[in-house]
Amino acid sequence: MLDVLGAAADRPVFEHGTRVVTGDELLDLIARIANGLRANGLGPGDGVALLQGVHPEAFATILAAHVVGARVVGVRPGLTEAQVEHLLGLDIKLVVRDADDLVRAAPEPLHCSGNPDDIARLIHTSGSTGAPKACAQTYASMTNAWTARPSAWPPAIRDLATRLDRYLVFGSLSSQVMFEYAILTLTAGGTIVVADNPADAITRHRATARVITVPGLAKLVAAQRHSPADLSTLRALLVSGSPLTAERHREALDVLGPVLFHGYGQTETGMISMATPSDPPGTVGKPPVDVEIRAGELFVRTPGQASAYWANPEESAEVFVDGWVRTRDLGHVDADGHLHLTGRARDVVIVNANLHYLGPIEHVIAEHPDVAEAYAVAVPDDDTGEAVHAFVVPKGDRVPELAELQRLVTGRLGAACAPVRVTAISEPPVAPSGKPDKRQLTA
User: Fold this and answer.
1) What is the pLDDT of residue 241?
2) pLDDT band with cut points at 50, 70 and 90 for residue 128
């Protein structure tokens, strides 16, 4: 990335409102912040937590922390206070809230201090267990990823790279998806554009590309049908977070044109596959040649995958198996090489593109004094993609109100995990194995 920015020189690479930052200016900022981090005693292997917004200094701080060889933990908005406290307890030496405190007047020449086997970053999952799992990626793994290396770009990324002239960033740079596409944009010669409000940002910022969730895509398609906006600059919608049905895919292509890039990946793996506008709707494209896949319950190997969950050997052993990552998704590759996702082998709900495990939600609901047993299932939701529907077996005659359960779950796990509906049942349906049959509850 330092080479990419050096080559950019006086070309604009970051735009935030009226402020435009060139490659040379961003490189200088990285050097000054790296000097500040070192002055604060941060070096190879040390943990640094970044609680920042979306602006050039925040982006520069991430890169500067990697320059000094630190273990970077980004803290995204929307976590509960307890979850933030957990992240800040992951062997953190320095917490950065304002990069201005780190900028030094006279930067030393840039030199990268990281060691290949050191952990470069902890990318945390949604935190539905109450404590977000941190996927540990080494500097060697981050180096092996293709994002900043055009010679290693798979065909889908080569196509996408031509469309990243003005890429919108919003929400949080600690989002793996948001950050990786930003790196790709700079490598492709484009400009990162900050959108404080992404609602009409394509038109307002003349954007050519942005990340969007499946529910967000559905709303955009409906809005374009009803009251079309000027999306003439748009060349790439980066759909992520949950599966896109063939019907929704076709509808979006029909209304928006050939701009859909549907990525499939996980925090643990990075990108596994990506469908371009020319790939068949209902697939997630053809996996790159350096991504290995075992079909059925999908196990994958990617160049830039994580190596483990930080300080979590039990769950690491379940997911990171003999060099493979167990996705807990179901799928197959067809005769033409396209990957089809057919379901999930894990008990989860995906709300606004964030994955949450249903087990912890059930445990919290079961703590309510009027609940004997609790079950939670994922149901389709027009606003969030999926949402939680709770089934409770009452202890007596009283069924707890939905609002009570929402407050209980929100306080412990966050609002995304709160049920949107609750149904009282006398007992759960049972599968032939004797276990509660959630498929019947979902139906």
Assistant:
1) 79
2) very low
Domain boundaries in the chain? Answer: 2-144, 182-344, 348-442
Q: In what order do the strands lie in the sheet with 385-394?
A: 371-381, 385-394, 419-424
Integer CA distances (angstroms), 396 to 266, 371, 399, 400, 424, in order? 42, 8, 8, 10, 11
Superfamily (CATH H level) for 182-344: ANL, N-terminal domain (3.40.50.12780)
The whole-angstrom separation of Cα 170 and Cα 55 is: 9
Residue with tokens 């969007």: 212
CATH topology for 2-144? Rossmann fold (3.40.50)
| Mean pLDDT for all residues in the chain | 92
Evaluate if residue 216 carries a pLDDT over 90: no
Quote the CA–CA distance of 428 and 105 in Å, as a whole number: 66
Number of other CB atoms surrounding residue 141 within 10 Å: 21
Cβ partners under 8 Å of residue 357, min gap 6:
128, 129, 346, 347, 348
Q: Mapping DSSP to helix (H, G, I), strand (E, B) and coil, where does residue 84 land? A: helix
The reported pLDDT for the residue numbered 411 is: 95
Q: What is the pLDDT of residues 407-424, one digit of tens each?
A: 999 999 999 999 999 999
Angle in degrees, 0-180, between the axes of helices 56-67 and 23-39, rounded to the nearest 10: 60
User: What is the bridge-based pairing of β-strands 191-194 and 166-169?
Assistant: parallel
Phi then psi for residue 56, to 5 deg, are -60, -40
Q: How far apart are CA 187 and CA 152, in angstroms?
A: 12
Q: How many Cβ atoms are within 10 Å of 121's Cβ, its own excluded?
A: 26
CA distance 379 to 391: 12
**DSSP letter assigned to residue 413:** H
Work out whether the CA dihedral 180, 295, 134, 195 comes out positive or negative.
Answer: positive
Q: Which two tokens stand for residue 126?
A: 């949604």
Distance CA(424)–CA(404), nearest Å, equals 14
The span from the CA of 239 to the CA of 253, in Å, is: 12
Task: Tell me the per-residue pLDDT of 171-183, one tens digit each, with 9 for 90 and over.
Answer: 999 989 999 999 9
State pTM to two decimals: 0.84
